[in-house]
Amino acid sequence: MTSTTNLPTSTAAVRAFEPFVPQRRFADAVALHPDGGTVAYVSNDAGAYDLVLRPVAGGEPRRLTRFDDRSVRSIAWSPDGNRIAFTADRDGDEQTQVYLVDVDLDAAVDVEPATEPVRLTPADDRQYQLAAQPFLPDGSAIVYTGNDRDPSAHDVLVHPLGPDGPAAAPARRIEVEPGMTMLGAVSPDGRYVLVRVLSTTSDSDVAVVDLQASSPALEILTGHDGVAQHVPGPWLPDGSGFLVRTDRGADFTALASCALDGTLTVLHAPEADVESVQATPGGTFTWVVNEPTGAAPYVLDPTSSGTPSGDPRRVPLPSGVLDEPCLLPDGSALVGLFGTGVRPRELVVVDLATGEVRYLTESRPAAIREGAPVAPELVSYPTHDGRQVPAWLYRPHPRPGADDARFPVVLSVHGGPESQERAEYNYAGLYQYLLAQGVGVLAPNVRGSTGYGAAYQRLIQRDWGGAELGDLEHAVRYLHGLDWVDPARVGVFGGSFGGFAALSCLSRLPDLFAVGVSVVGPSNLVTLGRSVPESWRPIIAAWLGDPDDDHDFLMSRSPVTYADQIVAPLYVVQGAKDPRVVQAESDQIVEALRARGVEVRYDVFPDEGHGFTKRANEIRAIGDIAEFLVTRLT
After folding, report:
1. Helix or strand or coil: residue 53?
2. Mind giving me the DSSP string for 239-300?
3. 314 and 397 co-located in one domain
4. What is the pLDDT of residues 506-528, one digit of tens each?
5. Which pLDDT score is estimated for 246?
6. Fewer CB within 10 Å, N- or C-terminus of the chain?
7. Full residue range of the structural domain in which residue 296 is found
8. CA–CA separation, 535 vs 546, rounded Å?
9. Are residues 456 and 358 part of one domain?
10. 297 and 432, same domain (yes or no)
């Protein structure tokens, strides 16, 4: 089935929604110049996700790329600070390519870059990914992965560089087995690169590759029994080992150091997950702990030996979510992205002595600057097996003279599923727009969500459409028990896994929902398992189920199987270039509903993939989603 949507004009919906849209949105990519004076980041001020520079002390931004059909995904400075390596894909297809661009920090902000980015990678239809810190210390080469030899295997590639750009010599290839591998940092002496090797979504190891060996190969350092995550962080300053995040033998992800013989030493094991580990050459270490109400940075000051030890100090950061933090070379501050439920993510500087947050950008839209946004409340509700499900509840402001009014509510389900809903300004302002129209939001972290322990996260594996659907049913029961909620006006919305959940709710719990929205949501778990990228397939059986061996089971959990039970109006949004949830997933459910005459709107964006990479498309889609929900719930 090809797209049957004509993307009807939605000027009125966009006009109503746009006052809630941040002035810019940021991608998860931030990097500091080696001297700490300039930060590189990725934002969509001009429409696409471009590479931007800004002084850390404050000042005007300078855009280094001017893409229309490409989106920058990851960035890294060269050791001398004269270049930036980055990856970018086209129209959200996730076939990221590696580029180099020269940087002149003395150029005026309105001056075009002296040179265009140079592409290092050859295959448009293959994926290349940078190491976390990809340059050799002397800048003579850059390290990345690529699946150009075998689509199912991400080989390690060492690409020589000259003083003026890529060297003539070809990239050196270190072949790896099929599966998912991701590169960590290159060691301070340039000898090793760290590699994360995934067996499943919750079981992984860290390996090293000796780049100076005549026949380099992966050497696993964190071999273990059972199931455990190992995620590499930065190297220790002396190169004797590195930091690693792991839940080995525990329910939450702790911070540890790992020696080159594989010896692990736990440094911090809170009752919450450790994230975003950073280090300076002088031995200051920072990390963020995912506490229930927000992000909490911790600092471990240098020791005389240069190895981490002692008790970390907690930074009193205001409640919010800190992403992509980068540590200044002197260890005094972090630069990263910080947001809350009532303010969009901004580029900020966090003083590690005081917790003071200094904003480098101002992205608040007019409706937030001039209005009264609703802060979410952290709640929990009981579910079918006695567990408590954490959730964020947004209640509309009371209407004057209508104290007994009941409001409609949208149940918003995050993607992943092994991800987490946090108190952020989500979906480009959708929540605050709904609230302004008198529609509440409940955003639960059903089983499978991260942030609540490994055991809770693993409950979703090989059980999509199972017990978590019960969590969503009990979310509606919880809403029915609130005296300000109208039980007859509950909608469901989600993207990716959240879209699958929305389709499951409408098809298997049809009496509970008045309307639904699925954005890039799979409808058939068998065809999903067969169509994911090839490098995902070795782990898909453990995560979802084998599409052949578990065919009947997966069909019994697929929304398309129950499509004849959907009666509520449905809005489906799909990216034509989505490599994870291909368009056929949305086509199937739309065909089934249209055959029965059920109201379904279907918009396919020909220049998008698994989400939105272009500002205009996102505003249009979310604006239309908002109008669709409000029209049918109010």
Report:
1. strand
2. SSEEEEEE-TTSSSPEEEEEETT--EEEEE--SSEEEEEEE-TTS-EEEEEEETTEEEEEEE
3. no
4. 999 999 999 999 999 999 999 99
5. 97
6. N
7. 248-363
8. 15
9. no
10. no
